[in-house]
Specification:
Length: 183
């Protein structure tokens, strides 16, 4: 039991795992959605994002700190809500959909900004700033793209979110196989 409280989320290099590879593959498929023969490429991107959110929930169970598990769960919920909005894109007014999806990205950017101010100096703080800026940039991209290239914007934004999930999977502190009994 003592080992559970002594686990440290040290700065470690990103590790490419099977879950990360699958998630990166989903991001590449999302980028390719506009050139596919899909009737609604946005709905396809939403489906891929939903699968990535489910993978993030699965990975949250392996994280070694309560804060990392909570962060993954909240991120997965936001990703799933964006995915549901994109899956239902054919049935929703375009302007409303843009505002809802941009709002979720802005909320996530705010979440990372708060995390930046709460963390002590270190690489976690730098990653929080980069995540906040990335989510903010994607929210702005959605808002400024009126009628030009909506399909491509949805693909880039969805792929960006999935790439973020893959990055979190590669860098999050997780239990090792020797610590499996701690979970």
């Amino acid at each position: 039991m003592k080992r559970q409280f002594n686990l440290k989320s040290t700065d470690r290099p990103a590790r490419v795992t099977a879950l990360a590879v699958v998630t990166l593959g989903l991001a590449l498929l999302a980028l390719a959605a506009p050139i596919s023969r899909a009737e609604f490429p946005g709905a396809r991107v939403g489906g891929l994002l939903g699968i990535a959110a489910a993978i993030e929930v699965l990975h949250a169970l392996r994280r070694s700190t309560a804060a990392a598990r909570r962060q993954a769960t909240v991120g997965a919920i936001i990703s799933m809500l964006i995915a549901l909005a994109l899956i239902n894109a054919p049935f929703v007014a375009t302007e409303a959909l843009r505002l809802v999806v941009a709002g979720w990205f802005a909320l996530d950017a705010g979440r990372y900004a708060v995390r930046f101010f709460r963390k002590p100096i270190g690489s976690n703080r730098t990653l929080s700033v980069l995540a906040a800026l990335g989510n903010g940039a994607l929210a702005l991209l959605i808002l400024i793209s009126r009628d030009w290239g909506t399909t491509w914007v949805v693909a880039v934004v969805g792929a960006g979110r999935i790439f973020g999930i893959a990055w979190n999977i590669m860098t999050a502190p997780v239990y090792s196989t020797t610590e499996a009994d701690e979970t």
